[in-house]
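Entry for the shared binder. Reason: the reviewer on the internal report wants the predicted structure included alongside the sequence.
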Amino acid sequence: MSLDTTLRLLAKASGMSAADIATAIPRAGVATVSAWLRGEKLPGREQLDALARAFGVPAGALLSELACTLDPARTQGEHDLLAAYRALDTRQQGALLEVARSMAGTRRRSTPKSNAGSTSRARTRRSTT
């Protein structure tokens, strides 16, 4: 879930308006908070901490999504896969994980077999020459 979606859900759940949130956040006006809620801007570190306090959630709950979004080690495909996974219900997520683990296990098992096959063929060739 994106940071702006998380903030909108927390605001709705707590019954806070953009003005209410702005009051609780240092150096953030209503226009800035509204931009966060629309996903047009990102809050700074101090503001994220204040948002977490205002909503009564751990700062990590807000930061984890932001860190995932900005992680340079992830490829676009990984970001797309994570977004698709998050859109699934719990049952579908479990099924997808099962398929992914199965595929990863198949790939790991097939690599040694193909190497073993080529090694035995190479031995056969050497012994006949």
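Summary line for the report: The mean pLDDT is 77.
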